Amino acid sequence: MFKSVDISQRKLYRLLRDDKTVWVLYLDIVKFQEVEFRYGYKICRQILEEIENEINHTIKQQRNLYLFSHFESRGGDDFVVYFVPGKNIHWNITEAIEKWVIPLEERFNHRISKLVSEKISLRSGIAQCINEAGRSPDYLLYAAVKEAFLLNKSEPDPNFFARRQEITYLIEEPAKYLKAAFQPIIEARSGEVFGFEALARIPSSTCFNNIADLFPFAEKIGQLYPIETLCRRQAITSYPSISHNKERLFLNINPLVLIDPEFASGHTRKLLSEQGLTPSDVVLEITERSAIEDFSTFRDALDHYRKQGYLIALDDVGAGYSSLQSVAELHPDFLKVDRSLIKGVNADPIKWALLETFVTFSKRIGCRIIAEGVETAEELRTVVQLGVDYIQGFFIARPSFDRKCINPAVKEILDVKHRLKSAEQNSILSMVEPLPLFNTHTLVNAVETYFRDHPHQWLVGITEDSRLVGVMQRDRLFSALGTRYGVTLYSERTIPILMDTNPLIVEDTTPLEVVSSLAMQRSCSQLYDGIIVANQRKPIGLVSVANLIKTMAERQIQIARGANPLTGLPGNLLIDQEIRQHLERRSTFGLIYVDLNKFKYYNDLFGFQQGDVAIKMLSEVLLNSSCNTAHETFVGHIGGDDFIIISSSLELEKLAVNILFQFEQSCKQLTGTESLSVALAGLIINTAEQNWTPLLVSERAAQIKKEVKAIGGNSYLVR
Questions:
Q1: Where is the EAL domain (predicted)?
Q2: Which stretch of 477-481, 613-617, 665-669 has the lowest confidence by average pLDDT?
């Protein structure tokens, strides 16, 4: 038996080398385990023998149709048949199932009719094996058997061979069949374009409905690497005509592709260089079409690309395989929150809470959040309010082959939100909860059903032409329906008959103090009703009085905690917050670390009271100097004799010179200050050139402080 198999295999190899085509047919029995359960092992053994007999018989009967044919059992109910079609075959491979398998199945069922009382179905997958230069025949046959096996186990695809042919054309002539579209990713604070995600498109395709169908099929037939490589090349070569001013290019990468020798060998880096780009301009977006099984190996691969300058984004967070383990193991620079979490986030408390959690989590690990799939103004307002860093979606702009303008409505929304997001504005938006909406045509019983299905929702909004005209409180509705004739009177009528037409509605620009005052001025019966937050009467969400009171109290405590008791300047909490806000804006800014030289000696010599006087004097010098800058300048007191100043990078040197001059003048008014001097460590932070974190800012400033203190006397150093 084994000798005959060897001979048959060698003959197949010889025919392949002679450029003959081999058809590989993989057969098994549909739900064979269930058949075995119903009829037992012995009957199933006879069924398998009969199918072998019928396959052998059919091959012998049709021997004149083929140059060569061969059959082998793969164990159990799996069989492989090899055909080398001859000139006598008048049907092609796409008709093989109809011409060969279906008649075989009918004859096989006739054979076993005495064994079983039902029809046994065969499942098939067929692949074509053609000689390729540089590939051995055994490799080609193995790949064809594997492909036939995968087709056997998957759903039937009537367009399989047409799709495979289209992929062949695409690989041979990518410039003709493949194009790169680009969708902008904008900064949430400024609305400026941060980068573009490259998206492959096959405009003239007749077999693939969209690009999402292409990659699974390419993986099925073993062509994923070449397809991904071509998409990557097309994106890189097309990008210079799209981008301006160091905008980042987001490239989708399947995890498996990271071990592709062509990618790892530096070919991609070379292609980037040819287009005037560097790895630091590129974000590798891990698409996770399949689960990452070996995180250790994969993390090593990512480190290799990070060292070259690439940034890493984890795509589809919140969906599919993108788990929290991926975030913990891979330490991405960006998290792209999936559309499934963004859709309807403005009115879904669960999605709202999840996105808020992701944002908080990202801040703690020094990562940035991209909300993808934003398609409505309400979704945009919500994701910005919750603090995402970047936004992508149809509402911003659709993917395009050339650079398109951002939707003008986006800038309008973001300008307002940027103003409201700053801590100084004390925005009511910081505590808004989702407000489910119903229109004025909704029946009372529909709202009742909603409240019963959502036991924690206590208020809904009623709109007409997208503007809020009233609210419906849970208690008020059930109270009305609970009266003797309530259900009869109201259930089939529209909701306006019961809604509150005069709720407290505040604009999203209203400061917390004003909202609190308005809420407390209401009558006792309305004192604890929800507060509706709107933008030009278009509802954004609601705020509970309990949350409002809690936030006001926390804010007062935070202010008290944040100030240094000696100088009254913002302390470490507010300093950290200020640095983070500047980093999140992705703008260039300057920082000066201020330190008194020989302060311990001065303090020990003249006493702590005189030491406190010196520290207060320095704080006044810093405040006075900051008032003379053209840009807004922040002065904070780290503690002891250490201070920090955050200002425009353009004025940093001028500010440092002014501080040294004023300090020298002020020292003349204090006893024993001849030994005191001030060291200024200046640091210019360009977030476009490096991925800064508060910890990295602190470390760099400390390094420069060490250098400037070594100079001695009143001195400054700006890096």
A1: 160-413
A2: 665-669
